[in-house]
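job 3f2a | input accepted
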Amino acid sequence: MELQQLRYVIAVAETSNFTRAAERCRVVQSALSHQIAALERELGARLFERTSRRVRLTPAGEAFLPAARECLEAADRARAEVAAAAGEIRGRLAVGAIPTVTAVDLPVVLRDYRRRHPRVRITLTSAGSGQLIEQVRQGGVDVAFLGLPPRVEPKGVRSRRLGGGELVAVVALDHHLTESEVDLRALADEPFIDFRAGAAGRAQSDEAFASAGVRREVPFEVSSADFMVDLVRQGLGVGMLPAAYAPRFADLRLIRLRDAPTRVEHLIWDNRPSPAATAFLELIRAEEPPR
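job 3f2a | predicted structure (291 res):
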């Protein structure tokens, strides 16, 4: 069994197509098919069901795929560890972030990291805090930036608080509310645009309204801050965004809240960070302002 064969199996599983898998692996299809057939003979089981319309994993293939991924990740990590011992950082760095991260200037950080470590392959995933915690636990993401309610700590990962901040209400420019600062009770009768119930981004607002004894309606649930802003622009309701993030939308009006919801941003990583992830953590620490 060879590592290249494992790469071919993973490529076919992810593309459900031998031709596309061969293109991804930069080999001719006949070579890829030959290597997978040889692996199937060695294993004594077919990994794929092939028809004229589609390719899909057999039960044996489903069982084989996670182990194949783990084997390739272990091999990549071994190479990265050897390179790090020789003074060179290489390998993969998978970064995750909520869309509204403000504790760091993430595009600048990624630029600086790439300049320092050009041999590292960087990827970025944008998702909710709960999803990112799970992805770090499972090893799909190396480091991630979260936003959580003040009393919540990420579980099952290593973490560091980066800072906190308040949320502000955002409304369309022609919204009937004209005050620049109100309390939550003044918003009780307004329709809200917020993240889905149960998401960390929603919990901050829900907890604040509950503490203020205010009931609110959330007829519009969204999965991204950009979608929230689009709906707010149309006058469909009030949105809630971090105070450090909201000013980038010049076509919305910000309303400060005297009893504002708050959130804390965290940087998380797994218990055994790779050399690439360790270098990223060191860069973040170096660029943080002194406290």
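job 3f2a | The chain has three domains: 3-85, 91-162+265-287, 165-262.
job 3f2a | closed
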